[in-house]
Design brief:
A two-stranded antiparallel sheet has the order 1-2. The protein has 144 residues and is mainly alpha-helical. The chain folds into two domains: 8-74, no CATH class; 78-144, no CATH class. α3 runs antiparallel to α4. It starts with 10 loop residues before the first helix and ends with a helix. The protein is globular. Helices cover 69% and strands 6% of the residues.
Length: 144
Amino acid sequence: MKKLPLLPHYYRQIGCILFVPFLALGIAYMAFDYTIPWLNYRMDPGGIEFSTNFTDELAAVGLIASFVMIAFSREKIEDEAIQFFRLEALQWAVWVNYAILVLCILFCYGGLFFSVMTFNLFTVLIIFIIRFRFVLYQYNKASI
């Protein structure tokens, strides 16, 4: 079986460390409208004033980067069984994500729908990580 291109094993630990502050930043932004002052951007093209703050973008990109590091870093022992579990978990995550998304499209409206779509940015990676870790736990428990 062809080897999958994966990040080195220590990236998983880096991703776990980065996850905490970016999750806290995302929660602070969504729950309390917290913004980082130095991320303000102001522009005046042709007399039309445009002003924004990039705190939410920083939190989203940071969470995605940390999830990718956690999900796609190599295991200490990466064999064909682990690769099979990884691919199976990814397929399972996509199926579950789209099932959840269809239900949310049918039953969520207005501002709630926008929130659902925001959280949907992360659900494939979250479901993949949970499923992959669960399958690895079962595999290691059975092999003992």
